[in-house]
What does this fold into?
Amino acid sequence: MQTRELVLHTGAAALALGLMATTADAQESYNLRFNHVLGPNEPFHQGFLDWAERVEERTDGQLTIDVFHSSQLGVEEDIIEQIRQGANVGQNTDAARLGNYVPGIAVVNGPYFLEDKEQAFQLSESETMQGWMDELASEHGIQVVCFDWVQGNRHFFTNTDVRTPEDLGGLRIRTPPAPIWQESIRALGAAPTAMNFGDIYTGLQSRAVDGAELVYPNITAANLNEVLDYAIETGHILLTNFQVVSSEWFEGLPDDVQTALVEECRTAGQETSEVIAQAVEEAKSQLQDAGMTVIEDVDIDAFREAGMGAYEALGLTDAYETVRGELDAMGE
It folds into this structure.
């Protein structure tokens, strides 16, 4: 009798172990198709590949991320709409576009809002920012994974020597199609012209636009110095990028996979931001060697003052002052 009980007990244990192994083998896997508008030579692309590799390794392959450069999955606005519908796609975007859904968050993309990348990293501690991200997720289906991806200071790149906001008068400057971006460029003195990133070169060639406002590595990566003569160092926006996915898709991930996705996003973003800071200086030097004229002695005070008009035009002055107050308090 004892022998029979031992056999039954051993058999039950083996069955339990077998079920556990089967469950582990059947562990559900997930995939994210991540899109961005930048070219394969941009530092951000390598940063996204690093993020993907780390997430796959940390989750033992449970979550994989396929990275698509140069808008291979489609234009940014279309991808964000797919995200809102619950698709397993992600997008590198900015506060300007997210401001189409939660207006206040657009201040992050406003003129002279952030001083440096460290301040950008601190934004996650802002109570107001946390509220805006919750609203994006709960009411609009957009989950912010992280926004530690600082692409550097944006400057005006033109074929005209510019020193003051008045010098931008009449110039058509390419901007992304979002209200805060349009109003920022208008407040700074130029005529904003919405155009997709991939169309800038031909737009400049055909004179549909007279210039663009971008970061230095954008110019070298897309060879835009072939159709632009001047770099005007206004530094009017410290571009902070947001990585977004579907909140419905995100909530369907196991908790540990969610944590891995977020934490590795922040780590890769901050590392890439450091790479970008070095790449900016290298790109600037490369452009000067290629014949581009860099204008450093611009009237920054005049540009700063003019830039406040963008917040006023969009009714974002209170949002600006609230978040700036929170950031200033963190720095004390």
Notes: The domain at 29-330 is CATH 3.40.190.170 (D-Maltodextrin-Binding Protein; domain 2).
